[in-house]
Amino acid sequence: MKKSTREAQCLFLTLVLAPIPASAEKAWSWSGSYGDEAVELLIIGDIQVMRPDPPSGFVHVRETLRKADLVYANLEGSLVPSKGAGLDLPDKNQWVHPGPEGVLALTASNIAAVGVANNVAYGRENILQTLELLESRGIAYAGAGKNIQEAHRPAILERKGVKIGFLQYTARWYIEEEQIATETEPGVARILSRDGVTIDPSDLELLRSDVKKLRQEVDIVVVSHHNRDGGTPVQFGRPSQEPRATARSDRTKAEEYQKQFAHVALDSGADLVFGHGTHTVQGVELYHGKPILYAVGHSAFDQPGYEKSTDGLVVRVVLDRNGLLRVSFVPVTRDENNNVLMLDPKTGEGARLLGIVKGVSGDLPLPIEGQEVVLLESSSLRTTNRE
Fold first, then answer.
1. Which residues of the chain have pLDDT under 70?
2. CA dihedral 297, 301, 306, 312 (to 10 degrees)
3. Alpha-carbon torsion (64, 65, 71, 75), positive or negative
4. Hey, is 127 helix, strand or coil?
5. pLDDT at 13
6. The dihedral of CA 200, 204, 206, 207: what is its sign?
7. Which of 2, 10, 100, 318 lies most in the core, judged by the most C-beta atoms within 10 Å?
8. Structural contact between residues 145 and 118, judged by C-beta atoms closer than 8 angstroms
């Protein structure tokens, strides 16, 4: 193990013995009864926790996360010591790596699996150190590895006899030579779209292959990717060098390539597709009866410059060996202390966020049952109290 890795692990060990604070609130009241064999998976948005008490970012939702059978999130940041603002990432002068202590936010809140393919997984050695730390804490991950084969390897977890597989990719990065996995170099799995409309054919073929292979190994396949959100000079070169889409004025609208990605994944055998990385929420879709959530927004996020980007969703997926029983979501924001807060979708800020999702989701009804918005429910199940 390299010296830098040892230092990171030592720093982590000094923090891991700290007591976990008590939860501030009871678990969210979900609707419906699905029996003891059903598995409840919660999907939450971008996580980047860098505070003296990392678990406190989930203080309002910790019991909700702990009560779930499985929680999956996008880990937005390398769990390595920061070199300082302006040094950790190109094109992001304020950004700093959250440090190894950020893993405490995951372990304290039942986050058993994360995706690590995103634009801020920067530096091949940083990526490896992050993976080593996740492994040391028993947290599964998808989207990165020591080479391209490992980066495309799924995270597979089993709950109540049901095997659930996760794949993750990124369509946004900064310097390919520092981030994208190759046959011989560590990094993350990519989805390349220069124009926001089409996807590189070779990446699409890898996506199809990954999903089809995973389909044979598990009962449920979940695929996600970090949205491109427009091209950048760092990623694709200056306009005189390579074509790139202009900056978008409305991030709530999915780019065309996102739809192609989701449809190809579902056609290849995935059960659910979701996206992240746009710092807001986007629309939802049922494609041949299969759910897509184009962007689930933020979860716990402490990075300077992004504290005001608070929109997000908690996605609830109830499933069994035969498929998805229910997919629903609850809007989230953050309180005055920047801690994640779930919202009733019928009133106030929760209703505003639901309005954004509905406004870019076509004619989907998206009924509210209790305190959750229902995207999909098995036709064999009866529901009550919908509004």
1. 1-24, 231-233, 237-249, 379-387
2. 20
3. positive
4. helix
5. 46
6. positive
7. 100
8. no
Q: Where are the alpha helices (DSSP H) in the chain?
A: 3-16, 62-67, 103-107, 124-136, 148-151, 176-179, 201-215, 233-236, 256-267, 348-359
Contact predicate 339/65, CB 8 Å: no
Q: Which residue type does 324 have? A: L
What end-to-end distance do the CA atoms of the chain give, in Å?
A: 56
Q: Which DSSP letter does residue 371 get?
A: T
Query: Which SS3 state, helix, strand or coil, does residue 238 take?
Result: coil
Can you give the three-state secondary structure of 43-77, one letter per residue?
Answer: EEEEEECCCCCHHHHHCCCHHHHHHCCEEEEEECC
CB atoms within 10 A of CB 338: 16
Separation of alpha carbons 347 and 354, rounded Å: 10
Indicate the domain borders of the chain.
Answer: 3-27+38-320
Check: CB of residue 114 under 8 Å from CB of residue 73.
yes
Report the SS3 class of residue 302: coil
At the top level of CATH, the class of 3-27+38-320 is: alpha beta
280 three-state secondary structure: coil
∠ CA 124-238-143, rounded to 5°: 30
290-293 vs 298-301, strand pairing mode? unpaired
Q: Say how far apart CA 166 and CA 43 lie, in whole Å.
A: 11
d(CA 269, CA 62) in angstroms, rounded, equals 32
What is the separation of C-alpha 202 from the centre of its chain, rounded to a whole number of angstroms? 24
Are 144 and 188 in contact by the 8 Å Cβ rule? The answer is: yes
How do residues 199-256 score in pLDDT, each as one tens digit? 999 999 999 999 999 999 999 999 999 999 876 667 776 543 444 444 556 889 999 9
Q: How far apart are CA 38 and CA 373, in angstroms?
A: 19
The number of C-alpha atoms within 13 Å of 87 and in the hemisphere containing its C-beta is 5
SS3 content of the chain, % helix, strand, coil (to 5): 25, 25, 50
